[in-house]
Every structure is written in C-alpha cells, then in structure tokens.
C-alpha cells in the first residue's frame, strides 16, 4: 500500500505541475488572441463564457487520461467477450455513424479554416503560432466541439471489435493521444492547435466519407501503385522532414546561443 500511495502522490504531483496554466489565473484574462470576427456566424456559434469553459478544462483536463484508461480496458474486455462469438455485421449503423462524423468534420473544417487562412495571410506564421483563436468566436466554438468529438470518435474502435476486424496498437494510441492533446491544448489555449484542428477536420471528413461508402461495399477504383514506390516516397519525404527539423533547430535554437557566447567573449 505504501508503494501505491507514493505512486499516486507522484502522479498527482505531475498532474499539478502540468496544470499550472496561467491563462485566466486569478480571474484575469491573460490569453493572447487574434481579433478576427467571422463575416457570417450562426446564433449558436459562440462561446458565451470562455473564462468559465477554460477554467473547467484546466481543472478537469487530466480526466482525459481517465477516459483513455477506461476506453483501453473496455476495448480489451470486449475483445475477450467476442473471442468465441460470430462477428456482427452492423453495416447500417456503421454507415450512419461514419456519415454523421463525415458531415460533422466537413462542416468543422469549413468553419475552422477561415480563421486559419486569416491568421496565416494577414498575421503570418509566427503570430499564428503565438496568438490563439478569438475566445468568444466561431473558431473557438468549433475547437470546443472538436475536443468533445474526440471522445465520441472512440466508438470507431468498438465497431472494429464487434465486427472482429484487425485492431492495431496505432489505432488505439492515436485515439488516446488526440483526446489528451485536445483537452490540454484547450485548457492552455494552444495557438498552434488551430492548424491541428483544421487539418484533423479535413482529414476526418475525407476518411469518414470513405468509410461510410465502404460500409456498403462502395470502394474507389484501383490505383496503379506499388508498395516500393510508397516506401520510397516515405523515405524521401521523411528525409526532407528530418533535414528541415535539423535546419530549424540550428537556425533558431543553436545559432542564437552561439552568437550570444561570441558577444560575451568580445
């Protein structure tokens, strides 16, 4: 029991460490955000109390890990339950599930991309990474729905298990990491989150639309492509990514320190 208590205290201290956000601390607004106002907004596309919503996320964000734990355990239990049972077909429920998430994701992308384009075009890349979305605006509303939708999308895994389809570790890991990241990003008003939200909405819109069609046996025509070309493509673009990261670190982290040392010597 002593070891368990110490482990729990360590976990609690780490959570407290990561929960020191500073945003809206002591009831003061300290969030840096852009002032973009959407030209068209539906009556419900707003956050009436961004301070209250943010403080709630800051207080309970770590329960995203609780949800992730429950999700992982229930998936394992369901796999054991289905081990000697026939798979469910679930074609119609799966179609409506995927179609609903596809429509939601496409709308989310359309409503989120406006803020992203404005930030990049009028403010530039650096301010877009530093100034978060307007806390009362349309983009904030869809960012909140994005975080909530990550919990809903856990249902994908249960469909896979009930239909006895192959379930990869990457699938579960992706769901868990995105839930925790979305909750923490919302609590800290992570400005770079606008890019992830917009990209994720876009990708999921295409992905769920494809899955909705596939659930009724509708597949796109075959593509003349070999696995060798795909692997070579991964290698090329992966090397580009590594070289860019190396350049970024050298240009913005290592060289400024070297210049500072040279000035100090002079």
Automatic annotation (TrEMBL):
GO MF entries: fatty acid elongase activity
GO biological process, one term: fatty acid elongation, monounsaturated fatty acid
Pathway stated in the Swiss-Prot or TrEMBL entry: Lipid metabolism; fatty acid biosynthesis
First-level EC class: transferase
Compartment annotation: Membrane
Enzyme Commission numbers on file: 2.3.1.199
Stored Pfam families: ELO
InterPro entries: ELO_fam
Main location class: membrane
Segments passing through the bilayer: 60-82, 94-113, 133-155, 167-187, 199-218, 230-249
Catalytic activity field: a very-long-chain acyl-CoA + malonyl-CoA + H(+) = a very-long-chain 3-oxoacyl-CoA + CO2 + CoA
Keyword ATP-binding carried by entry: no
Keywords tagged on the record: Fatty acid biosynthesis, Fatty acid metabolism, Lipid biosynthesis, Lipid metabolism, Membrane, Transferase, Transmembrane, Transmembrane helix
GO annotations of cellular component type: endoplasmic reticulum membrane
Keyword Transcription regulation part of the UniProt annotation: no
Membrane topology listed for this record: Multi-pass membrane protein
Family, as annotated: Belongs to the ELO family.
Official protein name in the record: Elongation of very long chain fatty acids protein
Species the sequence originates in: Toxocara canis
Organism placement in taxonomy: Eukaryota, Metazoa, Ecdysozoa, Nematoda, Chromadorea
Annotated gene: elo-4
